[in-house]
Amino acid sequence: MNGKTFFVDLSRCTGCRGCQVACKQWKNKPVEQTENTGSHQNPPDLSWQTLKVVRFAEKTIDGKFHWLFFPDQCRHCLDAPCKMVGDSEVKDAIVQDPQTGAVVFTDKCTGLNAEAVREACPYDIPRVDAATKRMYKCDMCNDRVRAGLLPSCVKTCPTGTMHFGDREEMLELARARLAKLKPSHPKAELVDAESVRCVFLCPQPPSAYHKYVQFGEAGPRPLTRKALFAKVLRPLRAFG
User: How far apart are the first and last CA of the chain?
Assistant: First the structure.
């Protein structure tokens, strides 16, 4: 499988949010008015204005307190359920770049059934601008990558958490880092490495980080009903 892949080593993440800020700056997204939710996480969730958010979680694991950080973003699934649903409504509304593998929401991604597209995503990533009805998510900084640059989040990361490059190179790096981490973190694992282009290395059990990172080596998530229906119809639609 060619194309590009993110490797995110959570054992090195300090929650600095540099990646979150860099993403917002490159995408020229406006600030959001937020309120204190009792967490250092801000904003509290993804939105059409915030395509990457560092999630904060306080967990007690094996009797020890851990403050866990998780830079949440689109995983760029190899076989993207959101694209299946988007294609079933408007052709080329959601495309997969043949060079990078990035899943990109195009200008046609306006007026789609946003609820269905979001529901199809097993990671709950797509968000809609209520004013324009257009859907947004991370596009892997596809414009930068095609110009030979790193995604803005990777370029900015000061701790070596974020990595980006050719898929096989990133998977090799991820496996090597996992092997090195295992002696001190026996519960560490790579999450969904065979099905996405944004692979997370979790030093603690994946279920401790964020509710959409919980399967790990158990295999790809089952498709939602709408995504499965769209996948069945996709070959028929090609003839229609």
Answer: 29
Contact 29, 51 (CB under 8 A): yes
Residue at token pair 């299946």: 84
Residues 160-164: contacts with CB within 8 Å, 24+ apart? Answer: 160/9, 160/12, 161/8, 161/9, 161/10, 161/12, 161/13, 161/14, 161/19, 161/71, 162/6, 162/7, 162/8, 162/19, 162/71, 163/6, 163/7, 163/8, 163/9, 164/4, 164/5, 164/6, 164/7
SS3 104: strand
**pLDDT classification of 35: cutoffs 50, 70, 90:** confident
> What is residue 111's predicted lDDT score, i.e. its pLDDT?
84
Q: Do the Cβ atoms of 222 and 231 come closer than 8 Å?
A: no
pLDDT of 149 strictly over 90:
yes
Residue 143's pLDDT is 96
From the list 126, 118, 104, 152, the residue with the least C-alpha distance to 48 is 126
Q: Select the more confidently predicted residue: 21 or 233.
A: 21
Check pLDDT > 60 for residue 219. no
| Alpha helices (H) in 77-199, listed in sequence order | 81-89, 114-120, 142-146, 152-156, 167-181
Determine phi and psi for 191, rounding to 5 degrees.
-105, 120
